[in-house]
Amino acid sequence: MQLTGTEDERIATAITFAKAHRSHEYDRDMIAETYRKAGVPFTPAAEKFCREWDGVFDMVKMYPDKSNVVMDDGTHYLIDIDFSFNLLSNSEHVHDPVDNVKVWYDADYMRRDGDGCSKRCAESIEYIRQDYGDDTVPVAQGGWYYPDIICACPDGKIVAYLPEEGNDQVFDNLEEFLHLHIGGHGLSRIEVVRDEEKLEGTMDERIAAAIAFAKAHGGFEHCRLFAQMYNRAPLDLSRIREQENRSGNGTDNSIAALLLKILEEATPKWYHETTLPCKMEFVEE
């Protein structure tokens, strides 16, 4: 989805879009059980927060309005804004939700690894509980570049802090936090990744797999192709889409030839071989 208007209007529209395209539905019983097993209070404020934000930004990507990476040779790349957000208790990115909730509430449990990072994080956890009370509980992690740990306060406000550094900040709500972390990056597009496939093998095998993936999702119109030269920069597939529009789906050979040409053009000058495609995404926008 293209975003227009002022920065605040773009962020507000992005939040509305993300809420309408959650990666999964809210499961209160499952999340409540996760907190019970972790020994962490599932407070009314935590429940309200999880109900509102579960699955909202799990598979979301946001892009700026102009290239945001410049290499030494002057090559420009447009990559997604380095923002992430997910619940600690229920996310595509969390493998052990019970451990994930417990470790950000129980300082002694955090210290179990014994390394310096764990000790500094444990000190931050102790500080948050001492300063805001035991009913201020961890609910999410996210932010621009370095993700904060986000805690829900009993009064509905949230506390966000960088685990190793502290630097806690209080926000009236998550929208205020999002405006701080998403703002200033020229936000102009948001999309949700609904399916993805890692491409492996030879160049021919990867291109064939990319074409098969696109066919399975109705063509290249809502697909993104990424190459190893910068695996967060989607390649410009407008010529592929134009060819599809002119001649139906086109032939596999003609699409493969055009994909190879696009990859050759995208290959940095210092590469000895054409950059390989590495991933395909099917997105809702």
Care to describe what's here?
- It is a single chain.
- This protein has 285 residues and is of the alpha+beta class.
- The chain is 39% helix and 22% strand.
- The protein has 10 helices and 11 strands.
- The strands form 3 sheets. The chain has a 5-stranded antiparallel beta sheet with strand order 4-5-6-7-8, sandwiched between helices.
- Helix 1 packs across helix 7 and helix 2 packs across helix 4.
- The mean pLDDT is 94.
Task: List the defining traits of the structure above.
single chain; 285 residues; alpha+beta; five-stranded antiparallel beta sheet; 10 helices; 11 strands; 22% strand; elongated
Please provide a brief summary of the model.
The protein is α+β, with helices and mostly antiparallel strands. It is built from 10 helices and 11 strands. α1 crosses α7.
Helix content: 25-40%
- The proportion of residues in beta strands is 15-25%
The largest pleated sheet is described as: 5 strands, antiparallel
Mean pLDDT: 94
Please write the string of helix (H) and strand (E) elements: HHHEEEEHHHEEEEHEHEHHE
Task: Tell me the span between the first and last alpha carbons.
Answer: 4 Å
Structural class: alpha+beta
Radius of gyration: 22 Å
Low-confidence stretches: none
Shape: elongated
Summarize the SSE layout with pairings.
Elements: H1 7-20, H2 28-38, H3 44-53, E1 60-64, E2 69-70, E3 76-77, E4 83-87, H4 97-103, H5 107-110, H6 116-132, E5 137-144, E6 148-152, E7 158-162, E8 166-171, H7 174-182, E9 187-198, H8 203-216, E10 223-227, H9 238-246, H10 252-266, E11 277-284
Antiparallel strand pairs: 1-9, 2-3, 4-5, 5-6, 6-7, 7-8, 9-11, 10-11
Helix pairs in contact: 1-7, 2-4, 8-10
